[in-house]
Amino acid sequence: MSSVNGYVDRVWAEGVAGWSLAPRVLVSVNGTALGSVPCTNRRPDVQAAGLSADGVVGFRAPLSLASGDIVRVTTPQGRPLRHSPWLYLPPESEGWLPVSLASRHPEYAEIAVLAGQLALTRFRPLFGQPGQVAAVKLDAGEGPRVACFGVAPRDADHLQHFHERVLTPAGVACPALHHRVGLGKRQALIFDFFPGRPLDRLGPGWEAWLPAVMDELARLQRFGEQHRHRLRARAGRKRPLLHRLLRRAMSDALRWNRARGERRFLLWLLARLVRLPRVLSHGDLHRENALVDTERGDIALIDWDRWGYLPIGFDLALLMRGLPGDTAERLAGGSPAQRLGVVGFTYLFQRLDRPGLVDSEEGRALRRRCRELAGVE
Asked: Which ranges of the sequence are coiled-coil (predicted)?
């Protein structure tokens, strides 16, 4: 994940609202641009989080939406805000749309093609999750499934192998991969439908689900240790976000105007993080990839195409991104190596997300804690 651009907080029949650090945002509905909207409303919550100096970052745009309309909000540079695109569905729809709508709507073109090969009755787009994903209701009593579109055949082979050889025998909580459907040069992967919401959308108290997610990570790590000899040479088809984070930090450390003390600390921290024990990891475990069914008390982890053997603590730091370092360390617990990984990667994420962190008291506290944990290790 890149640095924070802003969020779409709410979409309703008459409008869209959120915030962005850009002076203006661009709003479109069903691919048609409606114009730019200034970010001039005061948002004390964004200011209190340290993401804006004055908090004047909010926007609100009037709309007139119908069931199935898709709202996109981007910065002027075309970077989408979190939770964009957003599908508008009135409560009476229960989230489902008739398949007949797909052929008349360019946003759902792949659903229409899939409907020609499977006995679909209705579909539920799940925008806001990684990739182009939709739930589809199948006939013949199969119940709902999730279709992930636009997958290259080699990537599909790799992911199917990981599900069959790792996730299923390890018993990791994730939707089962049922079959693949060819759609031209790309494929759609059909998974079980998990009736949950992303951890990021549960609101205050989402941290209560962290122990359940950590149990699944521990199960994955134990399986990875037992089968390291045959898994080590493999990895997900996409590179983990770890590589992008480390490259960004190294580039920042070598900038000519970087303060000597911060440069020295960054190089020191990077050297220790890359030497941490490597464990079998999800590789992209932000909170949109952890689903929670609050009624049944179940969880599921999705989007496994960045898996690999990564430094211990990386998955947890990404999952808890945005929490203060001391809170993340307390919730993660574990060995000194794991705590160093959580705090160290939290520092790297916080540097991206919070301008001015380096010179803040929290930044100084995080650097002190990293050194203390390295000493313990």
From this structure: none
